[in-house]
Design brief:
24 strands, Ig-like_dom_sf, rod-shaped, Immunoglobulin-like, 3 helices, 3 domains, 6-stranded mixed sheet
């Protein structure tokens, strides 16, 4: 009887027991040493960050006996988005098998933490986490471009920001947002005669909050006890190392009288401008919005103006 203590991988092989007699007798027995999987960190990918549109390959090397199988999954349990060969289309898959996960022309939707799982039916299976960050310049989308409120009410303005890395976001009131390379400011006034926007801070007058979900951030501004001084243009601005973007909203007053709702002159000008632009009778700047390559915008403006007028008409009745 042969007993091998503290079996090691190097003990794998065949052993022969031989009896030196006449005739000689022998018997051969083989040992297969099974080894659980182990991931080689030195040959596997660490966390990586790439810009949107670039290619990325993440690698996971593992050893063991039998040879481990390597499977990739998303840590959050969501489907992986992989691009079809020679195609722009992304398909959803639960997992991917292979040591090399190639991700061409990355999109922001593919950002996240990926798990490399190595198994060979010898417990325990092992895993490694690789974080994939996709960087891109901010984009800002206001939930509404035109809001009305009666005096004394609280008004909430919202913007959705998409950005990676995490942006610096803030709110401005009045004027217009400067382009990054603009230098024509003198004594707080633009060369075009517009006043510099006022940065809004969280406090008794304004409530400012942010909710972040992955690469999306919901910005909220609450204007408390709405007054005539609060009428005007508001900007939600977001910036990171790759760029800057802003969204603009117009806040106007809805005057409430015992006989119903009455629009202010500012409100009527806005609604009239929308209607004229939609019909092609507005000024050149309004017409330029709906001409040429943007015919769809005329439909949007008609619907917006009609909706506002219908709401005011029903309130006055």
């Amino acid at each position: 009887r042969l007993r091998i203590r503290q079996l090691r991988e190097s003990d794998r092989g065949c052993y022969m027991c031989q009896i030196n007699a006449s005739p000689m007798k022998k018997q051969i027995g083989c040992i297969d040493v099974q080894v659980p999987p182990d991931i080689i960190n030195e040959e596997s990918s660490a966390d990586i960050a790439v810009q949107e549109g670039e290619d990325a390959t993440i690698v996971c090397k593992a050893v063991g006996h039998p040879t481990p199988r390597v499977t990739w999954k998303r840590e959050d349990g969501e489907y992986m988005l992989l691009r079809k060969p020679q195609s722009r289309e992304l398909i959803r898959v639960e997992s991917f098998n292979g040591t090399h996960l190639h991700l061409p022309k990355l999109e922001r939707r593919q950002m996240g933490a990926y798990l490399c799982i190595a198994s060979n039916d010898v417990p325990p299976a092992v895993s490694k986490r690789v974080s994939l960050s996709v960087h891109f310049a901010p984009s800002v989308r206001p939930t509404s471009q035109l809001l009305g409120a009666p005096l004394g009410s609280d008004v909430q303005l919202e913007c959705t920001v998409e950005s990676s890395p995490m942006p610096v976001s803030y709110w401005l009131k009045g004027g217009r947002v400067l382009p990054p390379n603009f230098a024509g400011i003198t004594n707080g006034v633009y060369e075009q005669g517009q006043m510099r926007p006022e940065m809004l801070l969280d406090g008794p007058k304004y409530g400012i909050t942010e909710e972040r979900h992955g690469f999306r951030t919901n910005m909220r501004l609450v204007v408390r006890f709405f007054s005539p001084n609060d009428v005007g243009t508001y900007h939600c601005v977001s910036t990171n190392s790759l760029g800057k973007a802003d969204g603009t909203m117009r806040l106007y007053e809805i005057k409430i009288h015992p006989g119903g709702v009455q629009t202010s002159d500012d409100q009527l000008n806005i609604i009239g401008g929308l209607a004229e632009a939609a019909r092609g009778r507005g000024n050149s700047s309004a017409n330029s919005l709906v001409s040429g390559r943007r015919p769809w915008l005329s439909v949007l403006l008609v619907l917006l103006a009609s909706s506002i007028l219908a709401t005011l008409g029903s309130a006055n009745r």
